[in-house]
Every structure is written in structure tokens, then in C-alpha cells.
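Build the 3D complex.
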Amino acid sequence: MRSAVELATGIVRSWTKLYTAGLRRPVRDARREEIASDLWEHAEAGARDGIATRSVAGQILARCLLGIVDDVSWRASTTVRTKQERGGVDMKQRIKSDWWLPAPLIIVAFGVVGVAAHATAGGFESWWSDTSIWNPSPLVRAGSVVLVATMFIGLPSLAVAARRSHPGWTLVLLLPAILVCVSPLLWGEASWWQLISIVGIVALVGAGMNLAQHSVQEDLGVRIAPSE
Amino acid sequence: MRRREGALIPLEAAVLAAGLDLRSAGQPEFHGFSLAKAIRDGDRARGLTAHGTLYKALDRMERAGLLESRWEDPDVAAEGGRPRRRLYRVTSTGERALEDAQIATAGASLVPGGPA
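Done.
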């Protein structure tokens, strides 16, 4: 029957690990240690008072379940407080450095539409004009879906994800999508296709500035992504 | 629960009252579980306070200066064969806040329609 209490304390410890994951080490360890102490005291008090182990296990689980909402709200407020202490929630600064992010996100959205078009219909052409009929073999269709998904969804998504830790890669990963986006400029036709060129140029300039900012911060010894 | 600036919510008042009861009983410092038991035994709650609710309140109260805490000496905990405890103590600010809350409650109970 001892195992019922051990199972309950194991569940509570796992939950505590989960909701404290990613917090600063002192805060995280303090909460985990405090809960571990509480669980030990509870189990010992139960044994000392002769309470059935199942009952103690039930009490422990009930205390955990009834406190989940408070655990989550404590986690949220601790995260916000930590960021404020670091001066990390400065919207003006954020907008100043990340103003270009909608551009790669538009490229990704364009990729989602493109993949759907390549998978179900006649590629980019069929959705907006009937000037060409595309009737590829299943293999070619699959290849085109993979190509469009990689170029317009996979690489730009990776680029956005890597923009802080590896800004050089941001530029490299965005480049194929940017080049294809800029290509409508060569057609010399002013149509809505030109908008995608503008998106490509914005993404290019933004990624370049991101790389430049990173270089300056590296020179100044500024850490972009604090480890804690 | 939304509350007035500086006012205590019922759980905070219960924590302070239980902490002062423990002090009167010769235990000036208390850990989380002993506090949860004291709150229950003092009939201020029906069961043991939930982990999340209790430790969130203790965290908030410590930042507000109502409580102060220290970690127990690891050697003492090792001798007892248990995890070390975080020991809390009610501060003078906490005592005053509880007195104010009790006065406010007593005053409200005199108002028709106020708490009994």
C-alpha cells in the first residue's frame, strides 16, 4: 500500500516538473524542492497518524488537482515578472527589430496556398488564370508539392525560428523563397504578382538587418538569447 | 478574486492567523505542510490547502513583505532523513495587516447586511 503514496507523489512531482520547466533555475528548483518537502511531510504525517495510505494518496492527489489552476497562473505571472526584471518586454524595441517578420510569414501563407494548389489542382496557374493546363504525372505532382512546401513553408519557417540565435542562417534559409518572390519583377507586368515581389524584398531587407544587428551586438558582447 | 489595494484575501488572513497560532505554540517558523495542517486544524478550511493555492499565496505574501522565509540547514534535514524545509515566519507587517483585516471585518459585521 506504500506504493499508492509513492505513485501519488510521483504524479505530483511530474506535474511540478512540467509547470516549472523553463523557469530560471533558482525559481524552478525552489518550487520543486518545496513541493518535494511538502509531499514527504504529508506522507510522514499520514503514517504517523495511522491514516490509510490510500487515503493519504487521495489527499495528495486532490491537493495537486485543486491547485492546478493556481500552479498555471503562478507560472504565467512568474514568467512575466522574470521578463520584466530582465527588461525583456519592451514592445517598441521588439517592433523596431522584428518589423519585417510579417513578410516571411506571408511567404509561408503563400506556400500553404501553393502546396494546396499543387496537390489538388494545376499548380499556381489554375487558381488565378486559365492560361495553361497542368496535367502532371502523380510523381511530378508529388515532386512539385515537396518543392513548393520546402521552398515556401519549410525554409522560411526555419528562418523565422532561427532568426535570433542564427541570423546568418535566417538569410540563407529565406533566400530561395525571396528569389522566387522577386522573379515576377522580371515579367515587367504590373499586377498583384508584384505584391509578392514587395514581400520578398521586405523579407530580404529585414533578414539582412537582423544579421547586421546581431553582428553589432556580438561586437558589443551583448547576449541576444540569455541562457537562463 | 479582485481585492482592494493592501487588503487580505481570506486565504492570506488564514495563513497569517495560523502562522501566529504556531508562533504562540512555540513554533515561530513553519513550513508549507505544517501551515496547511494548522489552517485545517484551526477550522479555517475544510481540508488541506491545495499545493498550487498555498505556495502561490506564500510566494505572493513574501513579496508583499507579510512573510519572510529561509531554507533550512541541509545538515539538519539530512539528519532527519528528509528533504530540507523552507521555513516561513510572519513579519511585523504581516501582523499589522492581519490586525487591520480583523478590525475591518469586525467593523463590517456591525453594518446591517455585512458579514456576521
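Residues 219-228 of chain A have pLDDT under 50 and may be disordered.
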